[in-house]
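REVIEWER CHECKLIST
Item 1: Sequence provided? yes
Item 2: Single chain? yes
Item 3: Sequence as submitted:
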Amino acid sequence: MKRTHLLLGLALTLLVGCTSLSSTESSESSTTSTATTSTEVTSSEDSSTDVTSSSSSSETSSSESSSSSSSSSSSSSSSSSSSSTSSESSSSTSEEVPVQKTITISRDTWTTLGTYPGSGVIADVSFGGILFQYAQAGNYTAGVIQGQASTFKIYNVDSLLVLNTIVMTLQTAKTTTTMYAGTSMDPNVTVITPSASGTVYTYNFNGGNYSHFSFRNGTSAIYIQSIVITYTTTSGGEIPDTGDGYELRTTPTIGRAAYDNAAEAYSLGSTGVQKMLVIPVYFTDYALNASQQDAWWAKINATFFGATEDTGWESVQSFYSKSSYGNLDLTGVVTPFYDAGVTTTTFANWDLGRDPTLSSYYDPTWTLLERAVDWYKGVTGTTLSEYDANSDGYLDAVWLVYSNPYSYGSTYGDARDDIFWAYRYWDYDNYYPENITAYPATMSYAWASVEFMSEGYGADLNQVDAHTFIHETGHLLGLDDYYTYDSSDYGAAGGLDMMDYNILDHNAYSKYLLEWTSPYYVNNTKASTTITLNPFESSGEFILINNGWNGSPYDEYLLLEFYTPTGLNQKDSQAAYANGARGFTIPGIKIYHVDSRLGKYNFSGVFTSFTDTLNVGSSYYPYIAMSNTSYYSEDPDYKLLHLIDKGGDVYFNSGIADNGSLFVQGNVFSPATYANMFINSGRFNDLSLIGYQITVVTLNSTQATIQIDRI
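Item 4: Structure as written out by the authors:
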């Protein structure tokens, strides 16, 4: 069931819903736009000369706000270097001796450069044994490289260890030449200002511990005669071990609250004490007498705020307390039943939106929500300000639980079939301040039938089942659905997750987004790194891999999580749930490919570029660009969350993951072996290298030891 999300007064299509019985029911989406799929261009040219070094160190320090301090200095391009010359003037033969080298990028060293690759396409080229990537570079005249207006860029993928200078010689002088530097691939934060002498621009990196640069053009074409890069490495070109190989990253560079505000997601806070208002509702054709109301109220209260033993599994409150490792305390109140005063048919046909400019977004639940909240404000004689913890003028989260049956397919045979399901939505009649009559106003809410409490473990009349309500509360917290809404698509996350087939605990990506966990980041300071993990469901420990990582959940990376059929995973792994899904029954490593990069969108909802910052200017907004439904993903081939199946089956044989999808003791992952699991043949979606082989050295029911080797 589609529900649309408005952002800054314009459409950002979202789907909201529940997968209690079906993985194909629509429920929540993201911005729709199609990006061109990247293609690769390789080159065998390089030019490299060693000169005497005056540097006293060949080590780089790690960046606290972005990613690793260095990535592999050996090119992994599919081409081989063939034209480099090198000599060392240092008298020492030790690999630890710092050596200064140069790389020259010119038409002489870039002999395979042809026409521009497609707009937005990042392509590969190797110089001096170092892998670079570029966009919109092409031939001009003899000896000259043309960089397309505003879209040309070039940056190093492999580490240059310590950058010294970059000298760019142009055919025609130009002042809009921007160089960024950092310790992660394609940096875009630290600006290096050149000194200019006619057509020669010198970028001096002295005093900066930078291993990567990104050169970008301005608003008109640029004509380059040469780019000469001087950097310090070691005599053998190998990266020395400079640390433990990993570190615990406890502070993300982009926080959840900041993202939520920039993207206008109106999510419920994910840490500390958070309050939800739960309002049971009945319609006149499904009226309840006093004793029936009391009986249902008790079940609803147990479903949301009961102790574990009051339910068939967990309540919403007890689940999130355990899943968050005690970081989230969901509290609130279940109000008395609200009498809607109309039949379900009348309600489903309401067209009572208060803002005609937003009529295409209108849902009858908006009006019902506003009336129910106003009713309860009158009952309590308060403004309900305690339900606006972030003081943004909106109630943080309201639940409407209706007493009539939900529709599965065509239960009602009319407009009610589109309304009576389970979903999360936003009351955009209160989007503009001039439409708000009293604060705090309604905005984010969820909607589901009491019947969902009687499914699964609630089939016993003495129990209630909260799975659906836990799933929808995940949406209130800001999580997406990980199943697909398209019948022709495949379920990339494998089904076995609370935001997929409504079972088990949340995965490492979800918990990282909600700031309940922090990753062990493989920071490339050691050739071979060993990490021992405890069960994720109880420890929150997981591993994050990407040498170019921006330091936040909002990027692309691999996640490694040690799954065990214990804790919140235990009951759903003992037998199939009502929808037929059963959790993994053995311990093992889940390897996820996450593409949670932020897109920069204009106010028409059009994707313009990827961004590593929320500061995209007043004419744009940031939003996670990928979805697990191809239609709603910025590139239909890219998935937000993809479980790498150990058997190498992209589509999961049975349509859902099973024990064979987990990596166990002795199993090895390498980008080459699992190239088919990645659209770009063993590379990340941005075409950067994964750069590591992963081996499960030991694994039992309580610990897993992982070896991660640089390749």
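Item 5: Key structural point noted by reviewer: Confidence is low (pLDDT under 50) at residues 8-95.
Item 6: Recommendation: ____
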